[in-house]
Amino acid sequence: MYTGPRSNKPGRPKTLDGKINYKKLDLTRMAKMHIEGLEGTAYTLIAYSKTLKQKVRLVIWVMPNSKHKLFFSTKTSMSGEEVLRTYRSRFQIEFCFRDAKQYTGLAHCQARNKNQLDFSYNASFASQYVAKVMMKENGLPYSIASFKELMASTYIAKLIFDRCRSIPNRKFISHTIKELFGWHRKAA
């Protein structure tokens, strides 16, 4: 953005002041940010986005391997630290929604009533939270897929032992497993 003095020439005043060269940053136009735990350096400035056709708060993160990442917000009153914090929390929220859709049935509800929809969404996120707590308590790495597989295997093993009662019968267990997994042949 051009913030210099206006020329007294006729016509529209100058608003843009060139493109940002990420290989040679003009540090006089941006502020350096000091954030703990951030490898590399980060700079912030207010720039104009051609695509959005408005001013944005831009954060340029130059990593130690000289690559860069851009983060922006259309709310120019935000600080650069707030923009980075918002992006970090946004991705955590997206991962929660992704896991809820894939593993806990977030998108499977067919209700139309607001209360029923609320219950379905709350049940989905609550089951995801319970799974996270159980994995943390048992020292398991966080993976909803592996946890779901573990719970299904535990349920099947419990079902087999419940059917066998106290005396394990190898022939009966083999038949039960085939029955549970659909491996037995059906008569033609």
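The above is record 1. Record 2 follows with the same two-line structure.
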Amino acid sequence: KGQGVYYQVYAPEDASNNVLAAVNKIKDDFEGLRDYWHDICPIKKYYFVLNDKYKGSLPQLHKELIVLQSDFNLIDTGVIVAKDLERELFNLPDDMIRSVVGHLPDIDHEEYMFVSGFTCFISAWINFEKIARHKVFSAKQPNRPLFIGKVVNALVKNKIISRQDATFIKKITEVRNSLVHGVSMLVPKKNEIDMLIFITEKIKPAGVCRLD
């Protein structure tokens, strides 16, 4: 509150089934927040944290937040979804991550191998995504995270990675999505994780490219 940054959490069963309810939630909660807190700690930034279950946010929500930003002269607004929280979590020190998610229970060897492989892959993916995003600047949306597909296309266009690398990343993105959605329990093979790490290392020394 001291910095004027506020987060409103909304966790419906499925926001896409009732878009109007989600839009009204943004408006009603902002009005309540403004009535109670604005005179004490003026609202400068307002973020709507949506449990999207990795399905993505709804365009109507972004539109409503843009209206609020304009009407009330806010510095920034935005929708924060599961992948954003995941990225923030795994950027924390290990001890803080454990304090959030807790310790793993006792599991058998097969489960351990899955968890070990999953952890290795997700760690490699988050590192790739973080570094890749830092290399691409969007002039149109400087404060919005880009879809990873747009980031990869920009890296190819600027010859930072090859088209073959991009094809591999597209494939591994689908595997990642299936894992986090619970559609599949198939973890990438070690050589695939190594390839993701190799591509990440290739991106590291590159300069920042502009996405117009």
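The chain has two domains: 5-82, 104-211.
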